[in-house]
Structures are given as C-alpha cells and as structure tokens.
Automatic annotation (TrEMBL):
EC number of this enzyme: 1.1.1.2
Keywords tagged on the record: Metal-binding, Oxidoreductase, Zinc
Cofactor: Zn(2+)
DNA-binding found in the keyword field: no
A Pfam match: ADH_zinc_N
Single GO molecular function: oxidoreductase activity
Protein name listed in UniProt: alcohol dehydrogenase (NADP(+))
Keyword Zinc: yes
Family membership noted in the UniProt record: Belongs to the zinc-containing alcohol dehydrogenase family.
Classification via InterPro entries: ADH-like_C (IPR013149), ADH-like_N (IPR013154), ADH_Zn_CS (IPR002328), CAD-like (IPR047109), ER (IPR020843), GroES-like_sf (IPR011032), NAD(P)-bd_dom_sf (IPR036291)
Amino acid sequence: MTTVAAYAAPAAKAPLERTTIERRAVGEFDVLIDIKFAGICHSDIHQVHEGWGEAIFPMVPGHEIAGVVSEVGPGVTKYKAGDRVGVGCLVDSCRECENCKAGLQQYCTGGGVGTYNALDKNGEPTYGGYSQKIVVDENYVLRIPDGLSLDVAAPLLCAGITTYSPLRHWNAGPGKKVAVLGMGGLGHMGVKLAHALGAEVTVLSQSLRKKDDGLRLGADHYHATSDPKTFEELSGTFDLILSTVSAPLNLDQYLTLLRTDGAFVNVGAPEEPIALNLFSVIAGRKTLAGSGIGGIPETQEMLDFCAAHGIGAEIELIGADEINEAYQRVQDSDVRYRFVIDVATI
C-alpha cells in the first residue's frame, strides 16, 4: 500500500481538509496514476453535503481525473508508464450483467463501483481524485489523446461524457434543434458538443448574463427563461432539450417548448422531487427522460471526438487550499465554467 496526500471531508457538510489516505498495492491488472488535475463537479458538493442520501466519511471527492501512468501491473496490456490517462465516475462494475457486456457500465445492474463514496469489491471505501495518486483497474482507465491538455481534459471525464452521451443517444446533429438548459459546468460542455455534432443550438438560461459566452462557445441563439415571452416565442420549437439544472423546475412549462416526439432529458439531478402533469407528455407524444454518464467505450469515443474538434472545458485552475471557497462559488453560480484543482498543490 502507498500513503498519499489528499483533501477529504471528515463528515457531512464539513469543510474539506488536507489528510493522507492509503492506496492499494498495484495488482496484476492495475494502473497507478500520478494525478495531475482533478475537476470539481457539483456532484462532489451534493455528496459531501449528503444531498443525495447517506454517504461514507471521510470522503475524498473527485471523479474528473487526469494524470500520467507511473506503474502498471504485470497483466496490463492497454497502458504503460508515461501514458496520459483519465478516470471518470466509475472504477469498477460487475462486468457480467447485460449492460456491462454492452459497454453500458454506468447502468450496471450487478453493482457498479463509484470512484469515490462507494465500496469496492473488497468492501473498502473508494477515494477520488482530490489526491496525489490513484490505483484503477486498466479496464476503467481512459486514454487522453495528445491533442488535449490534461487540465482542460479533466472535466470531460464527467461534464463532457454526461452531456455527450444523451446528445448522441437522442441523435443531436444536422437538422436538429437542441436547447441546452443551464449555462454552467455541464451546460457549457453541452453547448460545445451539440455545436460540434452539427445541431442548431439554443441556450436557455435564467438571464442573458452569459450570452456572449454562449454564442462564443457555439450557441446559435440565447434566451432568458426569466422572460415569459421566451416560452411564447419558442413554443413547439425543439427536438431535444438537455437540462443540466440541479434545482427544481416547472417541467410542464418547459415541455411546451418541445416539438411532437421531442425529448426533455435531465442530466442535472435536483435533490428534491419534482411534480409533473402527465398531459404535458401525452400531448405531443413527448418524452421525459434522464441520462447518466457514459460507459467506458463511449467515454473514450467522447475524448477522441473532443480531441478531433479541439474541445476542452473552460476552466479556472485553483490550488487545493481554495477547494472550500470553490464549493461555495459553485453553489453561487460564480464560476466560468469548471474549477480544476492543480494536484501539485495538495
């Protein structure tokens, strides 16, 4: 085992603090990664605050990990020391269920293992990317193409794949009108990816404060949802609405913006239940759906797509001693658009 420095929340809602954790010895099929950058996801805050249910503490968050391989086990065939790699939201799954065999490990029915706030197959808690090193089975490690800088690639391991997967599944592309609801850490990636896929992209945001950014990142149109005229003007417009918002919404209102057979897909995960009048989906044969991250094959596809199109996250690089301040700023929507920790500062 190896002792490494990390930042952890010692208890629910407690500030994160510097500590040390133990990483397992490198096994036959394991990859040891020197973490260079770790993104801060709103999911980290939800879990540190137990907003999604009871959690495991101490907790080392972080599932947007970019680094360099420093050691591999004797059975590893996919990676070697010096390779540029990433780790996303999963570090293992059952590998035997129908979804795992189809490359949909994010929907593993036999017990997927999260990168943090989870128990591995030995019953030991997993610790995430706010740390100097991590040991991961080679089958859950992603290759980061040379065309992507590690700092802007880190958020792609969650924010990137979380938006790419539904855009691909619901066929965003030429001839399709796609709205991205929310212009934050997830939303700005949704705009970039939908644009690169060839869709006509509209941003729906509370205000026009980030309009210039939205248009710069690839949006064709930008509307404020605080303006009632927006819902009148855009009624029946979109083939797909990708909601990245983690606060409760008036779904009935937003479903009016879909065309017949349109889909409203949630990737933001509010902590509270949301009400719905079913006539909002019955009228127009509309779909209300959700989407998780992506499986390992699709995540690699996304990284390759981003490299080919010059897409990285818009980031603010911070030191580890700024993590707690960054958490508050994420809650205040005061980041453009993803905080990334320089792990050399841990």
